[in-house]
Amino acid sequence: MRTLCWQPTWNPEHEGVGLEHLLLSDHAADAVVLAVDDIVGPFRLHYQLRWNGAWQLREADLTLATDSATRSLQLRTDSQGHWRDGDGHALEKLDGCLDIDIWPTPFTNSFPIRRAALAAGERREFRMAWVAAPALTVQPQPQAYTRLAERLYRFESLDGSGFEVDLPVDEDGVVLDYPGLFKRI
After folding, report:
1. Within 10 A of 145 (CB to CB), how many other CB atoms are there?
2. What distance in Å separates the CA atoms of residue 18 and residue 7, rounded to the nearest whole number?
3. Under a CB-based contact definition with an 8 Å cutoff, are residues 22 and 3 in contact?
4. What is the DSSP string of the chain?
């Protein structure tokens, strides 16, 4: 069991406000993110993820609380690109997504990094189940990762925004810092 913490740095109006506290074991993560959104204000995101030995996600349970509401989202996947909600209904729009990417946490960037085992210089595109908080919505999103060095990966959002960033990772392939967005503390 490891404990990891990141501080959000994306909102200059609330610099130094917020924290992610994550408990990481071999096949599960349990985390709480405390942050401030410009529209909804302070929020608390609790997420639990479970995966198999090949870093293939199996379950994601998320609960988001604001001053005015609490919402939950449960996702299940067969690790072959088929997803269901917590009630067992198929989420066909997520067909082909193998990994999850939750905003706001740098941890979920570790799934394609750990699962794909890219060689140095190799670039691969992924279809992600992208969960956006504080709305707690999920949609497919194309992304790419390129392994630049032993512990450095370039992330690219392929949604047309042109966003890309180089992510240093630790010895376990977990993001250290996410320049402009998160800092490991």
Report:
1. 20
2. 6
3. yes
4. -EEEEEEE-S-GGGTT--EEEEEE-SSEEEEEEEEEETTTEEEEEEEEEEE-TTS-EEEEEEEEE-SS-EEEEEEEE-SSS-EEETTS-B-GGGTT--EEEEET-SGGGHHHHHHH-PPTT-EEEEEEEEEETTTTEEEEEEEEEEEEETTEEEEEETTTT--EEEEEB-TTS-BS-BTTTEEE-
Domain ranges within the chain, ordered by starting residue: 2-184
Peptide bond into 104 cis (omega under 30): yes
Longest dimension (CA), the chain: 47
pLDDT at position 32, please?
98
The pLDDT score that the predictor gives to residue 81 is 96
Question: Which residues does the chain have with pLDDT short of 70?
Answer: none
19 CB-near residues (< 8 Å, 6+ apart): 5, 6, 7, 8, 33, 34, 185
Backbone angles phi, psi at 27, to 5 degrees: -130, 20
- Please tell me the pTM assigned to this model: 0.95
